[in-house]
Design a protein that fits this description.
It comes from Cyprinus carpio (Common carp). The protein is an alpha/beta fold. The protein has 2 domains: about 15-175, no CATH class; about 195-460, P-loop containing nucleotide triphosphate hydrolases (Rossmann fold), CATH 3.40.50. The chain is built from 13 helices and 19 strands. A 7-stranded mixed sheet has the order 1-2-12-3-4-6-7. It has a 7-stranded mixed sheet with strand order 16-14-15-13-17-18-19, sandwiched between helices. Helix 5 runs parallel beside helix 13 (about 430-460). The longest helix is centred in the last third of the chain and has 30 residues, at about 430-460. The radius of gyration is 25 Å and the shape is elongated. Bound molecules: guanosine-5'-triphosphate (GTP) and magnesium ion. Magnesium ion binds near residues 229, 230, 250, 258 and 281.
Length: about 475
């Protein structure tokens, strides 16, 4: 903590530079900070003390870097917005993909991110606005105003109960704290920041498969029962929906909970466009023959013959319709990247039989030249240090040893093993989780591109 900052009974996350009390409680501050990474908030401006005039706001908040605005209304709603770009009164339209609005629903801050292709705000001399749509302290009064606009999909009833009268408006400077001790070096470089998350979401949103006939790359998840295949889809879906979702059934049972082949498209927000990938979920692998997902079925899936919602039957393999089986599926129906989902806590316990089963799947996938990646899940359960703080993932020598072990057991390069923590019991999104999950997804898209590139160059070769 710097010598200027003093805590006033609000724990480590909130500090102040002037003797004014923050209205934001420690609990709520912690939950907002979790959305922004390893940050500290310090109060810059408090409307009830400094006045609701734009000049008072700008005097205290201009050129302060990323800021978080928290407003309170008479009905008791707590809501506001985050922007990573300074206020400077430049008159410019600001593009900032990390901007979001939030509203506490009980203890949980529910976020609404800026819709893609829209400005985050206009940087004028007035009071803060988000997307030139939501205006705080409008007309220098304790009022919030929602004008028509498409920058944010705001529902004013859920956001602030349609009560536009403010009782307080505070603006906090968001200070990024040093991520890790300089003495320790991460063995993989990760930026645990809101900007990095926004950048990854932008890259994924704007990704275009290398081949024009393929509008969405198909990523197949294969792995033992309970490894976290369905949870990975749920986690990615949650990030883009901006809230925790559980569309795919996940949980624990003796045998695979997922019994159907499911192809899940993901939308960029509730009413957003479909994103350029489809996650394909399968039944879990089991070591016994005649149980769990069958290698023959995997082969049919890889070649694009198996329809969505096909119910697996471990005792008889998938039989494609005759006319379909006679013609090869088009490239867009095939699988472009295979992801082996492996539970970090079970790597050492993997039986020889299961290892052999995965090896035979690998041989099949190799023969088709499809890109392959390992997703190592449950890093939180594997290492208490990581459970405490996900940012210590790449400092943990235990996790490093697990990555090496899974790499040698499956015969994939260490660089193709991506550790993640899926959303499992959380009720809200967390920046660190998002960064890891999005990094893994981004890598899957890169690998799918390598495969498509390879297929194209084969097709281009003279016969
Ligand atoms: N702590 C923690 N739990 C996880 C993680 N990923 C998944 N889980 C939990 O592990 C259990 C199994 O997850 P699923 O996603 O259903 O696993 P699956 O691979 O789809 O399993 P089957 O469909 O049964 O083959 C669930 O209770 C999840 O909440 C993770 O990264 N960390
Ligand atoms: Mg499942």
């Amino acid at each position: 903590m710097s010598s200027m900052d003093q805590s006033f009974g609000f724990g480590s996350q909130v500090s102040m530079v002037a003797p004014f009390t923050c209205k934001l409680t420690d609990g709520k501050s912690k939950r907002l900070c979790a959305l922004l990474g390893n940050v500290k908030l310090s109060l810059l401006y408090k409307a009830s003390v400094h006045g609701y005039q734009a000049s008072a706001f700008h005097q205290r908040c201009d050129r302060q870097g990323p800021t978080l605005l928290v407003a309170y209304n008479r009905t008791g709603y707590i809501f506001g917005g985050y922007t990573s770009v300074d206020y400077t009164q430049s008159g410019q339209y600001i593009t900032d993909e990390s901007t979001f609005l939030f509203s506490f629903q009980g203890k949980i801050p529910v976020c609404i991110k800026v819709n893609s292709g829209h400005y985050a705000r206009v940087d004028d001399a007035g009071m803060p606005n988000f997307g030139q749509q939501l205006y705080f302290c409008y007309n220098n009064q304790p009022v919030v105003l929602n004008q028509r606009g498409n920058a944010f999909s705001v529902n004013t009833t859920t956001m602030y109960g349609n009560d536009t009268r403010l009782t307080e408006c505070e603006v906090y400077k968001v200070k990024q704290m040093p991520q890790i001790s300089a003495r320790h070096k991460q063995w993989r470089n990760v930026l645990w920041t809101a900007n990095r998350r926004a950048q990854l979401m932008g890259l994924i949103r704007n990704y275009k498969p290398l081949v024009t006939s393929v509008s969405r790359v198909r990523i197949l998840m294969i792995g033992p029962v309970g490894a976290g295949k369905s949870s990975f889809f749920n986690s990615i879906n949650s990030i883009f929906m901006g809230r925790i979702t559980s569309k795919a059934m996940s949980g624990s049972a003796g045998t695979s909970l997922t019994t159907q082949f499911r192809t899940y498209p993901v939308k960029d927000g509730r009413e957003g466009k479909p994103l350029p990938f489809v996650l394909c979920d399968t039944m879990g692998l089991e070591e016994q023959t005649g149980a769990g997902l069958d290698i023959e079925d995997i082969s049919s899936i890889l070649q694009g013959h198996v329809p969505d919602r096909y119910k697996f039957n471990p005792t008889s393999v998938f039989q494609p319709e005759e006319q379909k089986a006679s013609r090869p599926a088009s490239l867009k129906e095939k699988i472009h990247c295979v992801v082996y989902v492996i539970d970090a806590t079970k790597i050492s316990l993997m039986s020889d039989k299961l290892q052999e089963k995965i090896a035979s799947v690998r041989r099949k996938v190799n023969s088709l030249g499809i890109a392959q990646i390992v997703l190592m899940t449950k890093v939180d359960e594997a290492c208490p240090q990581v459970e405490e703080n996900l940012q210590s993932l790449y400092l943990s020598s235990y996790i490093k040893s697990k990555v090496q072990e899974v790499s040698s057991r499956l015969g994939v390069p260490v660089s193709c093993v991506l550790p993640v923590k899926n959303y499992s019991q959380e009720l809200e999104l967390e920046l660190n989780c998002d960064v890891l999950l999005l990094t893994a997804l981004q890598q899957m898209l890169n690998f799918a591109d390598d495969y498509l590139d390879d297929v194209c160059s084969m097709e281009d070769k003279p016969k």
